[in-house]
Amino acid sequence: MKIQLTINSENKMFDIQPDEKLIDTLRNNNYKSVKFGCGEGTCGTCTVLINGKPRLSCITFTAQMTDKEITTLEGIGTIENLHKLQKSFIDEGAVQCGYCTPGMILSAKALLDKNPSPTEEEIKKALDGNKCRCTGYGSIIKAIMNVAE
Amino acid sequence: MIKNFYTPDSLNKAVEFLKNNSSASPIAGGTFLSLHSSKKITSFVDLSQLDLNSIKKKNNSLIIGATTTFAQIAESKFFPPLSEITGNTATEPLRNMITAGGNVMIPLRWSDLPLIFLVLDASFVLRSPRKKIISADNFFKKLPKSILNNGELLTEIIIPEISKIKLARKKIVRAHDDFPALQLAVSLTFSRKKIDFIRIAFVANKPLPTRLKKTEKFLLNKIPDDSLIEQAAAIAEAEIPHLNDIRFSNDYLKEMIRVYTRRLIHQCINQ
Fold this sequence. Notes:
The complex is a heterodimer. Chain A is of the alpha+beta class. Chain A has 5 helices and 5 strands. Chain A has helices at about 20-30, 85-90, 100-115, 120-125, 140-145; strands at about 1-5, 10-15, 45-50, 55, 70. Chain B folds into 3 domains: about 5-45, Uridine Diphospho-n-acetylenolpyruvylglucosamine Reductase, domain 2 (2-Layer Sandwich), CATH 3.30.43; about 55-160, Uridine Diphospho-n-acetylenolpyruvylglucosamine Reductase, domain 3; about 165-270, Enolase-like, domain 1. The mean pLDDT of chain B is about 95. In chain B, the strands form 3 sheets. Chain B has a 5-stranded antiparallel sheet. Chain B has a 4-stranded antiparallel sheet with strand order 9-10-11-12, sandwiched between helices. At the A-B interface, strand 4 of A face helix 5 of B.
């Protein structure tokens, strides 16, 4: 089936299967920041923003994304022009293997867009769906706190 | 295998499609159906364009649209105990996806809202497109899917008396998003210090919630004090059936029901 999606503010037509998951549509079209982890909505590595809110692309059907604004990490920063959260993650050493980082940053962005001055507890709650299994959460939380107003 | 994904722009079109396609299933958040849809389902009917994602207060009742997400309920200010429960369910991205309707239509033993809606004496509005209202007691008699006729769609959940009703819930889990051993909930209202409405229910080894009717009857029309609540907790422990569960012993679950019946009644009284 044909579908028009808005990804990182760009409208594009896609030819998808009715049961296609959003993660597959995105990765097959070079949005490689979106990572496949558990595949069952638990780990958060596949997090993208849908209308500014974090959702899990591994359990989202692409067919449900008409009229919605999808944001991946490619849409918020580039290597030449890093988003302030990306820069802060680098400065704080909040990245080890890096696999969870895109999901972490998008969840953090959604939080800061809604609440520019979150407490540490609010950051922890906003990241409760994003699992990290190597860096640990201390430096990640600090990186987000540094960007908060 | 899904061969068709239909996104109707009106309720009539949605129910018409469901009536004419017995292998079609409604879908909203999709957190369950994206992983576990039956092989018999060949079409999805996406409910996202039907304006069912709102929460509003009307004549002291709370009206929750079937596709309202847990995050929306959590952000609403109409009924804080319910907002707190949905705000602490699962994780942030999942709260943006799980819907009230999906949570009750596909009840699992870790689902939060079937138990909560049962103790709040909620009503469930079905459309075919003719309107039909089912009480929570009837809705959860068996799996809700089997209660709906072909072409019927859950559109709203109505919770009455939200300014009067007290609600307390305990979910026994080892970690925040873990599989619960037990969920227990109590709701009550008072009239001249007497309990004039009470619901106590639990979910343990089965997905559907069960009311503790003997305990409710014992407390109804009485002024609660420590002694009465202690007696009620003992009745609750005695009235539950044997709970076969590979993970938790029957003795442990019964003891937890006794302890938390007492604590939750106190919590309601102290609200």
